[in-house]
Amino acid sequence: MLTIITGAQFGDEGKGKIVDHLAENYDIVARFQGGDNAGHTVVVGDEVYKVHQIPSGILVGTNALIGPGVVLNPFSLTEEMKMLQDRGIVITNENFGIDTKASLIMPYHISMDILSEASRKNRVGTTQKGIAYAYADRVLRNEIRLGDLFDEDRFYQKLNAILPAKKEVIAKLGGNPYDLFPDEEAKRLLKIGKELQHYAVDVSYVINSSLRAGKKVLAEGAQGALLDVVHGTQKYVTSSSTIAGSACTGLGIGPSQVTKTIGLVKAYVTRVGNGPFPTELTDADGEHMVTVGNEFGTTTGRKRRCGWLDMPLLKKSANLNGYTELVLTKLDVLSGLETIKICAAYDLDGERIDYPPSLSEDLERCVPVYTENDGWDETLGEIRNFFDLPPNARKFVEYIEKKNGIPFSYISVGPKREQIIKMDVRRRDVRYNPIMRPLF
Ligand code: IMP
């Protein structure tokens, strides 16, 4: 049984907590795209864990895999492994594997990301982790893979062929090419390679064999659907495919294996970095979301832009991912707001539309058309049953479900593992059809 979980918005939907919650019921949790640009915060008891590359399922003892679709930063990965091990999390080659073919994020990729962002007028606002440059090298067949570190000669051959061109680019971008990749750094990388060799596996083989043996696999996406390199709000996107289909290519499994696809929806929208954001708020309601929701990036510490829930964008995400169920996160953050708004449609150049235009340049001009409801004052952190929610919070949830035609299976009402409402989907009056259906 294979479940795919992805963020339905611009990332940071609270994936860490939900994956952590679901992982107990799975044998394997696997990351399929992205790199250490991702950041998941998971609260276990009084402990707060921030993970960037290792699937957070490992915190509850589920086996964790990093697929060949990711770009791997070997330096930060080993630091992350050590941080978790120091805090008592067991990581061995019995419960953790990394695909031998994973492309490496090299120090020159990071320099190029930082320098090119600094030189641009219209910055993407990247996490400056070298993600685009590492993916570009993969597409150019110019990458160093994890497995290349296991053979010193092959590694140096590849590195020496790559470095001169990188030095040229870095010099052009205004950087100092001489300290680009000193020999001691190459030696350190080879040493890290020796450590990681211990964990190297063929993820596609492991997952397919596990599925055949009746095991349950959870494929964990990073970032969010609207940051997808093809389908997102280009050019303000990340460099990988972040939608559910990417789990198949990024892990090496066939689409016929997919049992369900879960979408994570935050009760409001956040975005880090630049790019269109029709419902963005710059008022006291937006500040409420930032402060109560603690909307600061796990990876970069940047303050996230916040705005009302956007149904046209959610409708697009549902199409891109084929969600069979949704999880609503951070509903508790909306407590205390006098009025709650949801963007039901856009006005684009005088025309009412309920689906986002293809180009982000056009999305920039979309003016939200809101539906409004009274808010609620009660705190939600202790509530475990949907029917105990304040009536206006229930209305909010039901509105989204009905408009989407996709049920919520969980509602998260706080950062702690136990702060979750399990929805009984069969009791809920939701017209449910996982195959593309109109939302309105
Ligand atoms: P990059 O992935 O670092 O190249 O950044 C490209 C865009 O994706 C920027 O707007 C980043 O802020 C955004 N981004 C990348 N990773 C994440 C994430 O994990 N959460 C939210 N936004 C992200």
Question: How does this structure look, described?
Answer:
The chain has 12 helices and 19 strands. A hairpin with a 2-residue loop joins β15 (339-348) and β16. α3 runs parallel beside α5. It has helices spanning 15-23, 74-86, 107-119, 131-139, 152-172, 183-197, 203-212, 245-251, 284-292, 311-321, 360-363, 391-404, and strands at residues 2-7, 28-31, 40-44, 47-51, 63-66, 71-72, 96-99, 103-104, 200-201, 217-224, 258-266, 268-271, 305-310, 325-329, 339-348, 351-353, 367-374, 408-412, 420-422. It is α/β, with parallel strands linked by helices and 440 residues long. The protein has a 10-stranded mixed β-sheet, with helices on both faces. Strands 12, 13, 15, 16 and 17 form a 5-stranded mixed β-sheet that branches. It has a two-stranded antiparallel sheet with strand order 3-4. It binds inosinic acid. Inosinic acid binds next to α4 and β10.
Topology:
Elements: E1 2-7, H1 15-23, E2 28-31, E3 40-44, E4 47-51, E5 63-66, E6 71-72, H2 74-86, E7 96-99, E8 103-104, H3 107-119, H4 131-139, H5 152-172, H6 183-197, E9 200-201, H7 203-212, E10 217-224, H8 245-251, E11 258-266, E12 268-271, H9 284-292, E13 305-310, H10 311-321, E14 325-329, E15 339-348, E16 351-353, H11 360-363, E17 367-374, H12 391-404, E18 408-412, E19 420-422
Parallel strand pairs: 1-10, 1-11, 2-5, 2-10, 5-7, 6-8, 7-9, 11-14, 13-15, 14-18
Antiparallel strand pairs: 3-4, 12-13, 15-16, 15-17, 18-19
The structure holds inosinic acid.
Inosinic acid (IMP) binds near residues 126, 131 and 239.
